[in-house]
Amino acid sequence: MSNTRVSRRQFLNYTLMGVGGFMASGMLMPMIRFAVDPVLEAGAAGDYIPTSQKVSELTEEPVRVDFTYDQVDGWYESEVTGTAWVYKEGDKVVALSPVCKHLGCTVNWAGDSAHPNQFFCPCHAGRYEKNGQNVPGTPPTGPLDEFDVKIEDDLLYLGATKPNTLI
Amino acid sequence: MNWTANDLDLYMQQQEYIDTAIIPLVHIGSGGAMKQSASSAEFLMNLAAFIERQFKGRVVLFPPFSYTDGNDKSRLASEWSASISDMPFKHVFHLTTDPSWSREGIIPDAIWIPSIPLESMDKKLKQSVLEDQVRQIIPVLTARWTSE
Ligand code: FES
What we know:
The structure holds two protein chains of two kinds.
Chain A: H1 8-45, E1 49-54, E2 63-73, E3 76-89, E4 92-96, E5 108-109, E6 119-121, E7 126-128, E8 146-152, E9 155-162
Antiparallel strand pairs in A: 1-9, 2-3, 3-4, 5-6, 6-7, 8-9
Chain B: H1 5-13, E1 20-27, H2 34-54, E2 59-61, E3 65-67, H3 73-84, E4 91-96, H4 100-103, E5 111-112, H5 123-147
Parallel strand pairs in B: 1-2, 1-3, 1-4, 4-5
FE2/S2 (inorganic) cluster (FES) binds next to loops of chain A.
């Protein structure tokens, strides 16, 4: 009978082990998460972000499409707004990144009245053709990036950016 | 460019192109003015981030220069400008929601933007309000870039 009784010492041991185990798991879990998270994130980067742009309303004239997504940087999470220049090329929808290939300013369609059919970078007067090709003699050294696009229920979804495939 | 090590690396290599410092002047109020000053700071920093994104390759956005009612503004201004003039920027734009800088002639060319409380707005509205403001400031910036 006395064998099955839990002595005061045993009881304390068990409880402390329990608490210790709980604490250890509390410390380990975040560590495992940190180790695994980057792997999970790579998958998330391939996600498509919905926009409110109706594909049926697109024309051959590039329009600005804004979208927002959450960005986690370290422990700091913020909501980021992105932009794309979107137009139709025949049946195909083209979405170009507005980030200038020179030093990263935001380019505008027809931003320079002297060149109404080009993208214009206000920072150092960089210019790009409608397909994103940089105009030689201006500072940018390469064409604008392109977004992966997806269409669902007439709404435009934007994916990751990739090097320009139109040129 | 932002005030980060990586962006400043790029700045070091491209100084001829990145020729403008953007310095937000942020008032820290005390007592009853705390919330109002926080709201103004929130607005100004959001706006500054917007401008930075638009003109990333031309500007360096400094961390906010903050001051309280106890600071002697004229002294602050002359100390700041002494340090900034050591840096190779062609243009220095001060952004602030506090009209006294330019009104009292302490920093005569400080760009004053009336503060709009963003805290009660939803994301969409906030975005469009900021865009509106930026659209009004851009001509001011480009005018200075071309005139100096
Ligand atoms: S950043 Fe666009 S031309 Fe320099």
